[in-house]
Amino acid sequence: MNGELAARRAELAAACRVLAARDLAPGFLGHVSLRVDEHRLLVRCRGAEERGLAYTVPEDIRLVDLDGNPGAAGELDGYAAPNELPLHTEVLRRRPDVDAVVHAHPAAVVAADLAGLGIRPIVGAYDIPGAHLAAGGVPVYPRGVLIRNRRLAAEMVAAMADRPVVLLRAHGLTSTGPTVPHAVLRALAVQTIAAMALSVSQAGATPTDLPAEDLAELPDLGGGFNIDTAWRHELARLP
User: Fold this and answer.
1) Which residues are known catalytic residues?
2) What are phi and psi of 170, to 5 degrees?
3) What is the pTM of this model?
4) Enclosing H/E stretch for 183
5) How far apart are CA 167 and CA 145, in angstroms?
6) How far are the Cα atoms of 51, 52, 59, 154 from residue 47, in angstroms, in the given order?
7) What's the angle, vertex CA 190, arms to CA 233 and CA 227, rounded to 5?
8) Tell me, what CATH number does 148's domain have?
9) Domain of residue 179, residue span
10) Is the distance from CB of 106 to CB of 192 less than 8 angstroms?
11) Which of 180, 121, 181, 174 is nearest to 146 (CA)?
12) Number of domains in the chain
């Protein structure tokens, strides 16, 4: 189990660096988690030498239970779980289909939502997984609050319903998936569409949805391409 946890800590640390490299979490706000078993998860925590997500190392990834207690002896020595840990744990409690949770603060997503530009399928073959994700709907949790307790987290999960991503108004987003790469790549797809919508709007036009017949023509290229190859690319481009 220790070897498996070490590999998962390394994966989560890399995911945090990807988020920073892609400007989804360019400062020190944001975190990624992964379900370990029924009662515990790995999550990025804050230590005395906090430097931001771009500098996350495996030692920053700590094992906690769903109530924020150490998941094993010494796991929180010198570290503190994020204030918004309930954001992660409530998703894991209520969504058995989810094992990984990303919380990030992408500026383009916040700005597009505040401008009234929802995450819509405005792109096609430019980003096929993103187009399909947007076509399924990206809901919004309308409160710009720090999701620091189970009550607020339950509101967020209710707004998310059965979708993989929810926008957090004036705050950021929460993205989920069966694996860490799924959750991170979905967050990146939402950011890409938000940035595109802002660019179109700033050019004086109104973003419009792709026609249904065009969406229907977009093939699913499979996880080997959409997830595995995409994730290798994200890791390879890290500084």
Assistant:
1) 84
2) 60, 30
3) 0.96
4) helix 180-202
5) 12
6) 9, 11, 9, 27
7) 35
8) 3.40.225.10
9) 2-236
10) no
11) 174
12) 1
